[in-house]
């Protein structure tokens, strides 16, 4: 499975830029116009994340493309979209840490509590996958409730329903391997849902969001992008775990849906104040 992009640290990118001519690569800022106007890396072009799909033809397939945003979350989604194109000869880079790292101000670390275990029986893996869907559901429900009434928060309502739909899909395959399984509502309601894809604690994610000084729209949506990216990555790995079995197609389909969710969040970013 070819990697769509590579993360690159700020230090490595500075070295890369020093070694290469300007026409060897394209540097792209995927933030909103007001953020770009306040300050950007010299030489970067502005293509907001919400416009990447419609402007993707502006980016060469035979040169390296380096993407950055505020913290590395939006640009990671953009790198996935761009690097997934067929016939990409150049390398797509995501600048880890974003312009905060470039300027020397890193975000606080988010503790990764638990790495998803692909070992065990098929039923074990499927149950753990439902647990994570429940966790994401909890995060989006909390965000939607907190920011109810804001136009950009409407996208979070769609994500809440999507996480439960994914859990229902997984449940059908989990239940098929059980004798007299309990109903979905009973299983889903009994899930702890304290961890989301990527191994992050729901509580810690919401606490970190509260600590950010940036207005809540972009912070909340960047958090959603991180969750959806981790969900995409995990679904691809679970699909590989079930390769050559019917569940491979199921989890690849879920992975594609997670990419669609990233597009949805990207569009919501245009509704942020000043966007």
Radius of gyration: 19 Å
Portion in helices: 40-55%
Kindly report the spatial arrangement of strands forming the biggest sheet.
1-5-4-2-3
Question: Uncertain segments of ≥5 residues (pLDDT<50)?
Answer: none
Question: What is the number of domains?
Answer: 2
The CATH homologous superfamily name of the largest domain equals Ferritin, core subunit, four-helix bundle
Describe the structure.
This protein has eleven helices and seven strands. The protein is an alpha/beta fold and 275 residues long. It has two domains: 6-102, 3-Layer(aba) Sandwich (Oxidized Rhodanese, domain 1), CATH 3.40.250.10; 122-269, Ferritin, core subunit, four-helix bundle (Ferritin, Up-down Bundle), CATH 1.20.1260. The strands form two sheets. It has a five-stranded parallel β-sheet with strand order 1-5-4-2-3. Strand 6 and strand 7 form a beta hairpin. Helix 6 (122-146) runs antiparallel to helix 7 and helix 7 runs antiparallel to helix 11. The radius of gyration is 19 Å and the shape is globular. The mean pLDDT is 89.
Q: Summed up, what is this model?
A:
The chain is an alpha/beta fold and 275 residues long. Helices cover 55% and strands 8% of the residues.
